[in-house]
Amino acid sequence: MTYTTKIDIELPREKVVNLLEDTTNFKHWQRGLQSLRPISGLSGEEGAQVELEYLMGKRQLVMIETIIKKNFPEQYHLTYDAKGVHNIQKNYFEELGEAKCRWTSETEFQFSGLPMKLMGWLMPGMFKKQSLTYMKDFKAFAEKGTSVTTS
Fold this sequence. Notes:
Alpha-D-Glucose-1,6-Bisphosphate, Chain A, domain 4; START-like_dom_sf; 7-stranded antiparallel beta sheet; 7 strands; globular; alpha+beta; SRPBCC family protein
């Protein structure tokens, strides 16, 4: 399953990518994030891995994020691996003037195991909606300082 999401952010591109890559900011725009633990590699560099733990409703989700390409300020590509799911996320940042940036995210989900394959087949819109929610939350944090931990 693949899809693309986009959002325009009223900040210079350099500021957007700096806020996005700073792991201390994740808690402000990634709803449900409980913990972040470096696993391997040099933090923020290609090949680096972190374990992310989320609480989504009553369900706990643990995933491993790996930076596969970092070419700031234009591109930032990552993979996320969790039980039954491999997610490839290719992020692109386009300047739309001195103080505006378009964040485009190309997302691909690969499912293994019957339960996850069924979920991807029956509810594909749920995944895109979740991606867009994170992007909107990041925009609110970047532009206005609004944190999901205080909203």
